[in-house]
Amino acid sequence: MASISVPNPAPSPTEDAESIRKAVQGWGTDENALIEILGHRTAAQRAEIAVAYEGLYDETLLDRLHSELSGDFRSALMLWTMDPAARDAKLANEALKKKKKGELRHIWVLVEVACASSPDHLVAVRKAYRAAYASSLEEDVASCSLFGDPLRRFLVRLVSSYRYGGGGVDGELAIAEAAELHDAVVGRGQALHGDDVVRIVGTRSKAQLAVTLERYRQEHGKGIDEVLDGRRGDQLAAVLKAALWCLTSPEKHFAEVIRTSILGLGTDEEMLTRGIVSRAEVDMEKVKEEYKVRYNTTVTADVRGDTSGYYMNTLLTLVGPEK
């Protein structure tokens, strides 16, 4: 369930574009007005505002925001204002350009883009990626030097997939593949067997995977995510867990993303922004519930404690009130 609130009726796209223009003209910028307008509009409404703005003022809305704003506030508001598919294409491209080899938090981005939304959205991301970077997402993942096989094969399969989006499931298949997954992940001290994992997690529908994982829990007395947690230092296991959570329980993954971004010395603003911006129109209410249960605090409290100024206000607007 989305967390943003939208006025009803909302101003027309032309009225919003004119209000934004007023906020960015003259001596200084009315940052609160920008948050109030853009932070309370859906993706479809923001797209209409962008079209209206460019038609009225012969410049793109994103270009204007970039020239007027700065820092983490600019990054968050621009990322939010972007078309969701173009946003995910940008996040994936930036993750592939990171210089730290095998950094899990950067690999998470690719998993989220591939697994945490609908099959049609992933197709839209791949199209947006080709349009923006003159190459395919699949090719760039396959040629990225940040990771090797079998992790590379797994990521390529994830970003190139087109899963069945319906609710139909095969119980016999779930039994068989729960057993295959168990055989692949149980060996302590042994490498995780990648081929079966790549095939099952990279191709099955979300509904089918949910039934398979439940069967795994029934057969073995614990969830596969708990088993994967026991394989400390195994990067493929960590990425597999993230993929399974994004496919079947994305609120668990994004609660962990937000929490990870604020733990330790300093805040990872890129991660925090991504975790909130990408889920505000999808399931942020579920993320907030999961966060409260797992960490005994709220997303709102942690955002207030680790951020400030217009950046904080933007994130809190997207998070919405706690219940």
Automatic annotation (TrEMBL):
GO molecular function annotation: calcium ion binding; calcium-dependent phospholipid binding; phosphatidylserine binding
Keyword presence, Ribosomal protein: no
SUPFAM superfamilies xref list: Annexin
GO biological process: response to cold; response to heat; response to salt stress; response to water deprivation
Entry keywords, A to Z: Annexin, Calcium, Calcium/phospholipid-binding, Metal-binding, Repeat
Binding residue positions for Ca(2+): G26, G28, E68, I262, G266, D306, T307
InterPro entries: Annexin (IPR001464), Annexin_repeat (IPR018502), Annexin_repeat_CS (IPR018252), Annexin_sf (IPR037104), AnnexinD_plant (IPR009118)
Gene3D superfamilies: Annexin
Gene Ontology CC terms: cytoplasm; plasma membrane
Keyword Metal-binding: yes
PROSITE patterns, per the entry: ANNEXIN_1, ANNEXIN_2
PANTHER family named among the record's database cross-references: ANNEXIN, ANNEXIN D3
Domain description: A pair of annexin repeats may form one binding site for calcium and phospholipid.
Family of this protein: Belongs to the annexin family.
UniProt name for this protein: Annexin
UniProt lineage: Eukaryota, Viridiplantae, Streptophyta, Embryophyta, Tracheophyta
